[in-house]
Design goal:
Four copies of one chain form a homotetramer.
Chain A (H helix, E strand, L loop, with lengths): L4 E7 L5 H18 L4 E6 L2 H11 L6 H10 L4 E6 L6 H10 L7 E4 L7 H14 L7 E7 L9 H11 L5 E5 L6 H9 L6 E6 L6 H7 L7 H7 L3 E4 L8 H16 L1
Parallel strand pairs in A: 1-2, 1-3, 3-4, 5-6, 5-7, 7-8
Helix pairs in contact in A: 1-10, 5-6, 5-10
């Protein structure tokens, strides 16, 4: 009997149709292209977003247990589960816990988050450097990540370290909720007296609420406003990581590694 | 949000459409009538039977993991799982093992087999006594069960004990593969010198291969042939337990108890 | 490095030093003799008895988790755990649950209760028949078991069945708390009008409270008193099963089977 | 009944008696002082070191399963388990796996590694800054950590980030086996043209083989030798983190947090 194989791409989720298309669906397509004999499926982990989509659009999207249960019910026997998470944090821990009951029911191959091994940092840094214009004279790049209390939060410092290591000395990484925060970013900018302009980029798969408000918003406590208040010329790029083909190909690579392991 | 509730009736299975209808489907209907707000679902545990049905009829029936996974996938949150098994034997142990991964995904309420508590034996004995003519003068009833190496096999002796206790002194219970076997039945008959005639009944949910061949077959080692060879007049009733409404109502009662527990 | 091997004999327990010596310690010795290269250890499962012994005598006896933990702590790597339980009931289920966390820490080989497979009933019946005088003319033997609501309770009926099957037609089995109870025993006696005398025996490893009071007590609701009230001459034998070498050797055999499995 | 409480301090281990005393035993003492009503116990996780000590000295030290089993066997009911690990890496994952079977047997309170939350990095950085002389004019500090393929390896970059953030701009962190490695350290030194001298410190609880050989060894591929080859004046401090009271107090604080959680 032929083995039925599926690829389940798991994202936090978004309720913005445009963002869904540009980021999540785009990643799904590129990961799927790497595993052409696997049926593509989608799951979101955010209950709030799933409920919002169901209520507003009458559209049902599976969470992880239901997506895996559906694959079991349909007779799939091998499933590559690739998260679009950046870090090995709480969301990924939760995902592993949700997948655990299915390990006896499926040949389940779990892909790792974007930033797991040392090589992943090099790869993401290079993908960003290939996708974005290098910082010009007097210009800094600041990536805004989400941040977390989970110990995986250390990933942000390593990414900045690697960006410097690869030559982008004026690329900085900060987070909304973790360490380093905006204060640390500001301090690091001030240590670079030649910097006059800052380009802000979200370091999130999806450019959603945090990118639009915390990073680029009109409110006086947005990063943009605070940087302008500190005298910097600021430009904001509202593109999630999922909009960069070079980043999407990293998720595809992770899925392939999981498949071949 | 409204809770979605299902009743999953789990049987060993049969590949005979007629038997399926008269026994398994009949039990399913009666158990379902006791839980009218639960969607009825079917699962079989025998991989051999599932594959035979799929190959022969192109019909897919779920095994337990797929049936439970399907319920999760469809958003059911409460499931009463009622087996049509007679005993707490290997099949039931396997069922419990298969259900275990789903206990975190569903409010799963597991019904017990037909013969679990002392009251169950009284209830089955009474159901049989209500459904069958009492042994006449010089007549014995012999129930043929399946039998197992599992310690639950002791149930057969208790059922015979209870039949005697309730007044049917000439009702005996034997098994094809366990203890007591045919030799013990024959010995017990020979201890009743007034017995001239034997009525054979399967003690199985479905009157299948064992009932048709081991019990009532033309071969010289069938129970019928051996009893006839020993001088008894033999009549065979090829009805599985599932064909008696009084027995079916016991499964319904078990499902209700599981639901209310 | 040499493997350290232990035999852990697990009993419900007793607080009577005499009973401990005659029954439990005697079983332990005989089982131990069958596994001479295993260090012998004891555990009791009854928290009430353990606390009573600790309070009264200042003596600590391990429960199962502590006994197994102690073996891990001392570097034992293979442990044969032999219960002195009669049935696969609640106590044995609890034992299996307590042993489960240790399966990754030890090569744990779990012996079965006295009455598990069909052969076990034959073996126990023969051991009793070898150890006790056969019922004389007009005499019945009644074994009083504990009884339980667990489905394993069916074991009592099978034991009586087997005793009859092996020729002791006037040996009956009843229980204090399960089925068959005293009423069923009395009815079965009344069906044997030739019976004038009853010999009562506990069907318990230890002849403790139930044997001394429920079976042989002076109170009017003891089995002895009720049988005497019904006109039978009654004799009571206050010996637990552990006092019969032939029964003890069955536990030893179970331990050997567990070891060799 | 009074609760028996223990503190189990778990270290990778060392076979050097001097190191054991100065580092591991010193941490144990300080953590123990924070939980004065807990009996102190020791466990090592390195099987190689445990076997070496057993063979050489005839001394047995428990691994984690045996230490926890011993506590169960002795009747302890509450155990604070504090690792002396720096990171949430493979060793800590293994520790959690080994502790898991005991969660049903003990009230087990698991302390976190030295570098878990953002505050931990601040605390360790401050402890180092309080314990060591600040880098002098033209002087850099280089901390050599172990490094790992586990995603927790990102901790090293965050520690360097925090050291800079707190003012020690010329403190660098590298690892023997992970990222950043010596090449990255050397590059960062070369970006600081004013640096002429390097002080090397192990970023390990114990100053063992890595500190003595990979860091400070005479071989030409030691960090010392390579730095000297690159023209730096090098001094090596062969003190493990456990030798700094300020670091030891951090482990004590982690144990208290675990206890109070």
């Amino acid at each position: 009997m032929e083995e039925k194989k599926a690829l389940l791409v798991v994202s936090f989720g978004t309720s913005f149709p445009d963002t869904l298309e540009k980021n999540i669906a785009a990643i799904e397509r590129d990961v799927s292209a790497a595993l052409p004999d696997h049926v593509l499926r989608r799951a979101f982990t955010s209950g709030m977003i799933l409920r919002k989509i169901a209520r507003r659009d009458g559209v049902h999207i599976d969470d992880v247990p239901r997506a895996l249960a559906r694959l079991v019910a349909e007779g799939f026997t091998q499933v590559v589960l690739q998260p679009t998470h950046i870090m090995n944090g709480d969301e990924y821990d939760k995902l592993c816990g949700q997948a655990a009951p299915f390990t006896g029911l499926l040949d389940l191959r779990l892909g790792t988050p974007l930033l797991t091994e040392a090589e992943d940092y090099q790869a993401l840094a290079r993908a960003l450097m290939d996708s974005l214009p290098a910082p010009g004279e007097g210009e800094a790049l600041v990536f805004m990540g989400h941040g977390t209390g989970h110990h995986a939060n250390a990933a942000y410092c390593q990414l900045e370290y690697v960006l410097h290591d690869l030559g982008w000395k004026d690329a900085l990484v900060g987070t909304v909720e973790g360490y380093p925060g905006f204060a640390e970013v500001l301090r690091r900018l001030s240590e670079r007296p030649h910097i006059r302009a800052v380009r802000l980029h979200p370091l999130m798969v999806v450019a959603g609420d945090h990118a639009n408000n915390d990073m680029a918003g009109e409110e006086e406590d947005s990063w943009r406003a605070q940087l302008e208040g500190a005298g910097y010329a600021v430009t904001c790029t509202l593109k999630g990581l999922g909009e960069y083909p070079a980043v999407r190909s990293l998720f595809a690579r992770h899925a392939l590694v999981a498949h071949d392991r």
